[in-house]
Amino acid sequence: MKTRILHIHDIPTTKCRVDVRLKELNYWVASIPAETLPTLQQRRFDILVLDVPACRLKQWLHEVNSRFSLPLLWWCEERKPATAAPHDKVDGVLCCGMNDNELQWSLLLGVKNHQRRLHLEREYQFLATKFQEKKLVDDAKIMLSKINNISETTAYEMMRTQAMNERKKLVDIAQAVLSTNSLLVKASSSKPKKYDYTQ
Fold it and tell me: Using 50, 70 and 90 to split pLDDT, how confident is the model at 196?
């Protein structure tokens, strides 16, 4: 089965057309103007090739990445000097001066880079979630230790025991502790002050 490539062009190059070259290399290529992207119905593609000027690359990358999670390669004019590194969501760069082998290798490397990028993004998300959970547990532990006048180790063990007894995650118990304390603080601050008028 042929690799399906979606060629999205803004102001396509006329001298060296990437869609024609990829078809010659036996890829299945659909070519659409970038402004018609929101109306695109067909979504079964393997690779995206963005054929846009560097000044509009970031704009179209945002649009494309909000709709697809596919390897994304940028077709750029080699005559223009690279003034800045491509955006971090670009998995590869293709240009007019590449021969057939270089184009095919660049497409393969783009697919590999995309897989690596997705893996790193998932890993980052996992670590960010774990860090947030640890922060919640630490905040709840400190709060419990202050309220009950106990050590942080004892407070942590109390939460851990409760989590095991209730078959819940430690972070859920921590969240409940923080929420309960937040409600208690609000309730105590909203009580009307009592004044002694007998003096």
Answer: very low
Rounded distance, CA 67 to CA 51, Å? 17
Alpha-carbon distance 98 to 159, whole Å?
Answer: 61
Got the DSSP string for 138-188? HHHHHHHHHHHT--HHHHHHHHHHHHHHTT--HHHHHHHHHHHHHHHHHHH
What distance in Å separates the CA atoms of residue 97 and residue 78, rounded to the nearest whole number? 7
| Polymer length of the chain | 199
pLDDT value of position 82: 58
Query: Phi and psi (nearest 5°) for 37?
Result: -55, -45
Q: Are 73 and 44 in contact (CB under 8 A)?
A: no
- Name the more confident of 68 and 42: 68
Let me know the angle formed at the C-alpha of 180 by 176 and 183, rounded to the nearest 5 degrees.
140
Reported as a single tens digit per residue, the pLDDT across 151-187 is 989 989 999 999 999 999 999 999 988 888 765 555 4
* Spatial separation of the C-alpha atoms in residues 50 and 34, rounded to whole Å: 9
What's the pLDDT at 198?
Answer: 41
CA distance linking residue 171 with residue 75, whole number of Å: 46
What residue type is 138 in one-letter code?
D
